[in-house]
Amino acid sequence: MADSETTPFLSAAAGSSGKAPDVQATDEPLETTPLLANSSGAPRYDDGDEDEARQNDTASISSRASHNAPRPARKKSSRWPSVIAMMVLSLFAVAIMFLAFFLPVAIEEYAKQAVVIEPTNLSLVSMTANGIRARIQANFRLDGQRVDNGHVRRVGKATSWLFRTLASEETKVSVYLPELDNVLLGTAAFPPLSVSIVEGQNNEVDFVADLIPGDAAGIRMIANRWLEGKLDTVRVQGKADVQVKAGVIPLGTHSIVESLTLEGDKLPQIPEYNITKINFEEKPMDDDGRKAMAAEVTIKTFNDYPVSVEVPELGFEILVPGCGPSDPSIQVATAKTSPIGVRSHSEVVVEAHGLVKELTKPLTSVCPGSDSSPLDLLMKKYLGNETATVFVRGQQHPAGDTPEWLADILSSITVAVPFPGRSFDNLLREFSLTDVHFKMPDPYADPDEPESNPRVSGSILVLAGLPSEMNFSLNVTDVRARANVFYKRQQLGELNLEEWQKANSTQIPATDKHEAGLKIQSRIEDAPLNVTDADVLTDVIQALLFGGKSVVLDIDALVDIRVQTILGDIIIRDVPAEGKIPVKPLGKGLLGSTEPQVGSIDILSTTTDSISLRALVNLTNPTPYSAYVPFLRIRFENNGTTLGEASAKDLDIQQGNNTDLVVFATWKPTMGGAEGVQRGRNLISEYLSGYNTTITIRTHRDSIPTQPLLGEALSRLNFTMAAPKLRFPDKKKDQDTHFIRDATFHLWSSTASFTLVNPLKHHTLYLDYVNATALYNHTEPIGTIEYDLPFAAPPGDSVTPRLPVDWSMDSVGYGKLTEALGGRMKLDAKAIVGVRLGKWTERLWYIGHGIGANVRL
């Protein structure tokens, strides 16, 4: 059936050629042969139209043949190659995807997580004109346990096992700062490297690389931000074209770009250091004899990093801050370091040598709105045991073999270096104040003026210790100070020396027991002492008067010193100083030993109840101190009752005898009320009678107008002293205090006359009445006198009128009087006398003993 179906296709095909095929001679495959022959191998003899028709007929026959052919046999012979081809293509595509995408990513991830690099040493081989040649030593290995993803870990291990080694050609790595306009930080040239990438196998890498710095501006920016603590994060980006081969298989050239972000707190910090030695000395600067100040500093620190460097000699500039934060720093010195050998994990010793040639004007000029210069501010912190700040900057053109590129980088970087101060607590060994002279406040001075306070003058002797690092000559020419004065840890007042006081100094060489010293001598004049606590002043005066031993005052001062050095005059301000001033006691017998005596007395004015006078007083000052009193007002009392007041101006009390001191006084017992009137009457009567009378002088709030606290402080003390003795003209030894110097009794006329002594040189006393009794042996009456007619007692000696006497005829005393007729006897007297001086009147009583009396008929 099959044959019959195919025969027409074959006949038609044969008919077209004019030949009949031999059916029996052909087997089954001939069915398709004419089709294949006609479609591919038969030559063409007709034109194109005929060929086109033949092609159409052939296509039709082939279509029918294909439709009528047995289907199972046809499918089995043609589908397997296609399936296999598709599978191979699919596997090939998957392999391409695996090799091109997944495998590189997995290997890259594996390399990032599994790689372990342990730097063991970084050492500087040499410095070249372009950079640094460094030797880098490290351990390199792959640790698959560090990879979190299991698939990545297996792929990585397989790959590293397959290739086993990885090698690179010479490579140049450039490092950029992408956040800062892609500034080139530097480049590194690495030699060819070959490492084993077998899992867990360690590689000791040891190679020399050339490191070349990039843009100096970028390096300076990063360095300055890091030094200022403003570098929170920094992102660096490395770029390199790396030629890699695995084993012997070249892997081509790969462009690698990697970024790394570093946190500021994870960056290396400036190590802590210790200044173990600092020494200043004079050093010749040239052949002309000029000298400079040289400084030698030794600094020790510890290198915590596995880095070894041989640092060549470097030059630096030393600067100090200007007046304000925005002002430029001021260069004060140049310095250079000796070559430094830095070893990993070892102590590092840096020796620096500085030189100060001169003190520039910006350094010593006073800052606007201040009384201090930049040098003053630096010295204040240093001497006050505070940490000062200096700046260190590389020199642009240093001496030595410093490469130009290194000098360029260092000169653009400024490092703030804390410079620790030192304590001068034990600087003052001795402090003494001698030849002390006090001045009381000037009552006419403005309260804000220094003259409104008590002032102190004296000779200061200070022995100060010189720090061992100061090995140069200096001379103190002037000093001034602001000091707080304490007594038993309580502040007494403030002592201010605002004006410069001349001084001179002598250096004392060091001994085995003491370091070098400086002896400073100065004379302070009129240093104001502002009393801030009246109670403390009272305690001091009491201790001086009654303590019997020296009083120690503590001084806590800030001293300004003008010093001559080889660099010129330097003012060192606010040097902290502590010392003690021993004040010698005034002595328990001070008030008694002053021995005041009243000389000339002038009555200035009188009222019915007061007398104003001017007196010249002589006294002895037994203390080692002198004093000047421009004005002082005091009250005088007796038994706690005010009787009057006195004042003095321009008193200059020196040591020893002081004569003719002018004192003004007002006798006014009514200030003490009725009790004062009675107390005043008794006091004068006792004084005239020769009793040992005392008066108490006391200050008050208005004693020193400009210093009320001082007056109040002194008012708490009772200065009780013997009443001043009057100077009598032509006095006799046994008549020192007798106002009645002599008497004459006339028995026949029953009268008596007396020789009186008036100590007032220019004023006459009047006795308005007399009621007196003469006694023998203190008790036996001789006679009485009652006389109410006024009579005068002019200055000096004078004789009274004959006063009538009523004799006591029956008394023993009168008998003794008659027995002494024509001779002389001693008698006592009691009297009540009315006294008048100008407008002032008083009724006094008088008791006299041992009065010499002449007896006449």
UniProtKB/TrEMBL annotation:
Keywords: Membrane, Transmembrane, Transmembrane helix
Source taxon at top rank: Eukaryota
Biased composition (Polar residues): 56-66
Lineage: Eukaryota, Fungi, Dikarya, Ascomycota, Pezizomycotina
InterPro entries, per database record: Ig_Tag1-like_4th, Ig_Tag1-like_5th, Tag1, Tag1_C
The Tag1-like fourth Ig-like domain, residue ranges: 595-708
UniProt-recorded name of the protein: Pre-rRNA processing protein
Record-annotated Tag1-like fifth Ig-like domain positions: 733-845
Tag1 C-terminal domain sequence ranges: 470-584
Record region (Disordered): 1-76
Residue intervals passing through the bilayer: 83-107
Annotated Gene Ontology cellular component terms: fungal-type vacuole membrane
